[in-house]
Amino acid sequence: MTKVKIASTTDVSSDKVLKTSANGKSVLVAKVGDNYCAIANKCPHFGLPLAKGKFENGVITCPFHGSKFEICTGKNVEWVDSFVGIPLPAIAQKMIAMGKSPTDVANFAVTQEGADLFIDS
User: Fold this and answer.
1) How confident is the model at residue 32 (pLDDT cuts 50, 70, 90)?
2) Which run of H or E residues covers position 28?
């Protein structure tokens, strides 16, 4: 693994995610409380990007299927509950999930050196 700079602290705010890259991988970084956190910019449902999803209280929502992930752990907290923002009934949720089980997003430990933020990638 290689330590890669992903952002500066001045680039990251607590109210939105910053899309960046590390060794060719798309990464989202955000500030949650006093911590900087990073996850892959790739929903495990169909591999679509999470970057344009709603971000609040440390959780990002997939803009395509409504799955929700904690940005500091990558943990899945809700799986496929909507389609492009339109809430779905339970039977439709199962159809949209297409047999895929709830899955976490890859997350990265963020280290800070001065004003620079790094992950191992």
Assistant:
1) very high
2) strand 25-32
How many other CB atoms sit within 10 Å of the CB of residue 109? 11
What's the confidence (pLDDT) of residue 121? 74
Contacts of residue 56, Cβ cutoff 8 Å, sequence gap at least 6: none
User: Could you tell me the two tokens for 73?
Assistant: 């752990």
Q: Residue 101 pLDDT more than 80?
A: no
Question: What integer is the mean pLDDT of 45-58?
Answer: 93
Query: Which residues are within 8 A (CB) of 121 and not within 5 positions of it... i.e. 6 or more apart?
Result: 1, 2, 4, 22, 23, 25, 27, 108
Asked whether 111 and 117 are in contact (CB, 8 A), the reply is yes
Percent of the chain whose pLDDT exceeds 70: 86
The encoded tokens of residue 96 equal 């949209």
Residue with tokens 């989202």: 28
Q: Which long-range contacts (CB under 8 A, 24 or more apart) does 97-102 make?
A: 97/45, 97/65, 100/44, 100/45, 102/67, 102/76
Q: Are 108 and 39 in contact (CB under 8 A)?
A: yes
Question: Length of the chain in residues, anyone?
Answer: 121
